[in-house]
Amino acid sequence: MKLSVRMVVVLTSIGLLSGSFLATVGHLTKERIALNKQREIEAAIIQVVPGTVSSQRLYEERDLSVYGGKDNEGNIIGFAIHASGIGFQDKISLMLGTNSSLERTNRLAILDQKETPGLGAKITDYEFFLTYWENRDCSVPLTLHKPAASSPEELSPTEVNTITGATISSEAVLSIVNGSLEQVRKLIQEGKLSSEAQDVN
Amino acid sequence: MELLAIFVAAILINNFVLRYFLGICPFLGVSKKIDSAISMGLAVTFVMSITAVVSWVINHWILIPFKLDYLQIVSFILVIASLVQLVEMFIRKISPPLYQALGIYLPLITTNCSIFFLALMASLREYNFVESIIFGVGSGLGFTLAIILMAAIREQLDHAEVPEALKGAGIALIVAGIMALAFLGFSGMIK
Amino acid sequence: MSTKTIGQEFIKGLWDENPVFRQLLGLCPTLAVTNAVINGFAMGMATTFVLIFSSLVVSSIKKLIPSQVRIASYIVIIASFVTVADRFLAAFFPPISKSLGPYVPLIVVNCIILGRQEAFSSKNTVGRSVTDALGMSAGFVLAMLVLSAIREILGAGTFFGYQVMGPWFKPWIIMILPPGAFITLGILLAIALQIERRTKSRK
């Protein structure tokens, strides 16, 4: 066989073999990978909107998705806002639970972050940080309590706590939360998002 | 604003070499002289900018519409390998002086993980077309900055008394560590 | 063709030709994912899988591949196995896949793998190539474990996630940040070189 023909034949067959091999592998793992992602989101929704039995995606764009947490009867009992933005080092991705009128926070969960271990990474710590985000009045933009408070009682209803030594990470979380709340309100006003239970598609 | 943030973050905060540990081989291998470091940096920036465009097109016009995401790794690496070859041939035709300056560095770039990482990251972060280009150029400049600084320090190191066992890669890595420490200071500059 | 015994073929990867400490190959993943032992170990295993299977395939079909297109063929073969490893981790070990992130696909540009195909598998029998791949992988995993153990113990006070340092210990956070990776590897390379020099001068 001529060399050039052989080159083409060999490369094509290697390409075809690997392509079909990968198609099989891709097909076999596709569902499981999608399921893993879905489970992660669902677990986070249940965590930030307690009492959720089922959930529904109401809105999605890059860096902002809104889910509705529903009770047994299918009424939306709260929103789970999945948002991300720039932190101290890299992207922070979080999920904030609010009540169905968007006026009170339920809980906050940090899904992904690459902040400094031991300092900024404390934003994932419940006692240090996340506990101060529960049951806040978010009808107005939230503010940071500086310097750090040592118990939730020291904060006013619209304040959240700062992490000592990681002000920038705390501010980053705050600005992601405030920004996404504002965006969601705007979406509701524009009629692109409704807290009424929609038909499950 | 968003674009500026991506650009500055790619150069300083998430510097490819000092934060993501990419392109360590050329970073250590071609950083003995400032001249060659500049050429290497420019060659990488050039290829990165083109890769950003091409990989975006492949991803958004072929892989995503036809749901071929499992072919991403294979197609990106093949595209990069052939792209570097094309760029090399193209530069040789168009500008012999530029080829003389960059030529020997181009083949090295094929196995440079930073190019591949760039394509992956742009797809992972769902950058749009313009953002991908900005990210590509910024990352390339970040690499250039790191390798030039490194070369400047290493030229001075020649006059220093380094313990025998640390000579070469050892001391270079420790210097890189100190540079990475300094670059940590850029964290948090974008809000 | 290599003239070593099969045993020597395996052993050389551990020290004499250790890919990280002696050949300075694959430094990107070595530095990037060694902030915790579990990550270093998972990365080592994923790389081992890709290296062994690539060597197996390349050495079995080496006679069919014209030398002009060998690199392209090797890259396709390697990239296929990397995709398998990436998909497997994402499907069955999502937390590990998440913390290694884009560094799993990066195995494709790990110079150890392409280097072994070019330098060894393309010239040797299947048995020898796989043994060589096993040895090199073992050397790589060893390096990953040493580096990640040092970084995790000093940087977080834990080993494989278990607390090993007492409450008196204040973690050196810098060790799990990028500078710690560079500095630790720099010192380890110096130690490796020193040991090598000692043994040489004794001979």
What descriptive keywords fit this protein?
heterotrimer, A: alpha+beta, two-stranded parallel ribbon, C: 203 residues, mainly alpha, two-stranded antiparallel ribbon, 8 helices, 2 strands
Mean pLDDT score of chain C: 90
- Our count of helices of chain C gives 8
Rg from alpha-carbon coordinates of chain C: 18 Å
Could you tell me the mean pLDDT of chain B?
A: 88
Based on CA atoms alone, the radius of gyration of chain B comes out at 17 Å
Q: Which series of helices and strands of chain B comes N to C? A: HHHHHHHHH
Roughly what percent helix of chain C? 55-70%
Total strands of chain B: the figure is: 0
What about the largest sheet of chain B? none
Total number of domains of chain C: 1
Q: What's the helix count of chain B? A: 9
Q: Percent of residues of chain B in beta strands?
A: under 5%
What coarse outline of chain B follows from CA principal-axis ratios? globular
What is the straight-line distance between the termini of chain C?
A: 27 Å
Low-confidence spans of chain B: none
List how many beta strands of chain C DSSP finds. Answer: 2
Helix and strand content put the structural class of chain B at mainly alpha
User: Major sheet of chain C: size, sense and barrel closure?
Assistant: 2 strands, antiparallel
β content of chain C, as a range?
Answer: under 5%
H/E element sequence of chain C:
HHHHHHHEEH
Please provide a written account of the structure:
The complex is a heterotrimer of chains A (201), B (191) and C (203). Chain A has 201 residues and is α+β, with helices and mostly antiparallel strands. Helices cover 34% and strands 24% of the residues of chain A. Chain A has two helices and seven strands. In chain B, helix 3 packs parallel to helix 7. The longest helix of chain B is centred in the first third of the chain and has 30 residues. Chain B is globular and about 60 Å long. Chain C has 203 residues and is mainly alpha-helical. Chain C has one domain. Chain C has a two-stranded antiparallel sheet with strand order 1-2. The model of chain C has no long low-confidence stretch (mean pLDDT 90). At the B-C interface, helix 2, helix 4, helix 7 and helix 9 of B face helix 2, helix 4 and helix 8 of C.
